[in-house]
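User: Fold this; tokens only.

Assistant: Input:
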Amino acid sequence: MNEYILISTTSLWLGILTSISPCPLATNIAAISYIGKKAEHRNIVLLSGLLYALGRVITYVVISFIIVTGLLAVPAISNFLQVHIGKILGPILILTGMFLLGLINIDFNGLGLGHKLHGKVHDLRTISSLLLGILFALSFCPVSAALYFGSLMPVALEQNSRIAIPMIYGIGTAIPVIVFSFIIAFSAHLVGKLFHKISIIEIWMRRITGIIFIFVGIYFSLVYIFGVSI
């Protein structure tokens, strides 16, 4: 029970950290601002924000379901993961932590989707906010890709969780989105100030998470790879 609470909390934290990373945060604000730009009522802005957040949650859950189900459906892969997942997690967490600390740099533009979708937000006037959330969720930036594929997916595989863990992660990514929806609906002029403050906080949150990942990765490597009793 305690282990599941810890995993759920970690998944929620990774979701929040993903959503306030520079690229996703800017994209979320741009999308919600545009969605609510022509709305005459605050309720419409809030509903649009909720639907946009729901679109992101659905996307993360579907991607995870496909990956986890696909890998575990193959007996050889499933057996391999059950036996060696601890050994795999160690190096992955270390690499992810190094990436979050900026020790490793990977230059890729959202799997080819980031700039295209970010630049075409103004062309999506007739498409629902739910679909907009799905599209932007697919626009993985380096940090969000590292957190989702490098950290969340191994945990989901280890726990054989096709829906629960990814859904908690998705909810984490939705929390800042919903907060910004309220701000835009009631005090749009505060968005710029809050964006700046969150950007500063995010840097330290990412560094702390990176350090924790490295230490946990070293622990996993020592225990499962080198057989050290700690």
